[in-house]
Automatic annotation (TrEMBL):
Keywords: Antioxidant, Disulfide bond, Oxidoreductase, Peroxidase, Redox-active center. The keyword Disulfide bond applies. Thiol-specific peroxidase that catalyzes the reduction of hydrogen peroxide and organic hydroperoxides to water and alcohols, respectively. Plays a role in cell protection against oxidative stress by detoxifying peroxides and as sensor of hydrogen peroxide-mediated signaling events. The lineage of its organism: Bacteria, Pseudomonadati, Pseudomonadota, Alphaproteobacteria, PS1 clade. Monomer. Belongs to the peroxiredoxin family. BCP/PrxQ subfamily. This is thioredoxin-dependent peroxiredoxin. It holds the Pfam family AhpC-TSA. InterPro entries: AhpC/TSA (IPR000866), Peroxiredoxin_AhpC-typ (IPR024706), Peroxiredoxin_BCP/PrxQ (IPR050924), Thioredoxin-like_sf (IPR036249), Thioredoxin_domain (IPR013766).
């Protein structure tokens, strides 16, 4: 059954930068922006991470945490965060378990060549662990503002 708004968010347990872990249960009583992105230090992914970092205080005021997830290893996340002074937590899903659970490990097509990769997608999870809103095939421009509005509204 595909994930839809209003359903329970799949549980996860991810290794994160700073030698930390993140589990869905860690965010009980808070909202969570769980965003999936293809690769550290690429133009769109860097812009998205910088936008989330720039608005982190506004998300905190809305009782909302931010967790970015890609298949990159933790060491790569740490270089990415240090290089761009990112203030958000980044989770590593090298085995694609969480990517599959959230249905973002998908077949992509570039220049006629098909391959598997991460669909840029964002899930807003409410205080009780239910999916409040889903954004698929995200375009980075203005995306963080849309997510912040939804976090404030919900």
């Amino acid at each position: 059954m595909p994930l839809t708004e209003g359903t329970k968010a799949p549980k996860f347990n991810l290794a994160c930068d700073g030698d930390t872990k993140a589990k869905l249960s860690d965010y009980a009583g808070k909202k969570l922006v769980l965003y999936f992105y293809p690769k550290d230090d690429t133009p769109g992914c860097t812009t998205e991470a910088l936008d989330f970092t720039a608005h982190i205080k506004n998300f905190e005021k809305a009782n909302t945490a931010i967790l970015g997830v890609s298949a990159d290893p933790v060491t790569k996340h740490e270089k990415f965060k240090n290089k761009h002074n990112l203030k958000i937590l980044l989770g590593s899903d090298e085995d694609h378990e969480v990517l599959n659970a959230y249905e973002v490990w998908v077949e992509k097509n570039m220049y006629g060549k098909k391959y598997m990769g991460i669909e840029r997608a964002t899930f807003l999870i409410d205080e009780k662990g239910k999916i409040q809103k889903i954004w698929r095939k995200v375009k980075v421009k203005n995306h963080v503002a849309d997510v912040l509005e939804a976090a404030k509204a919900g």
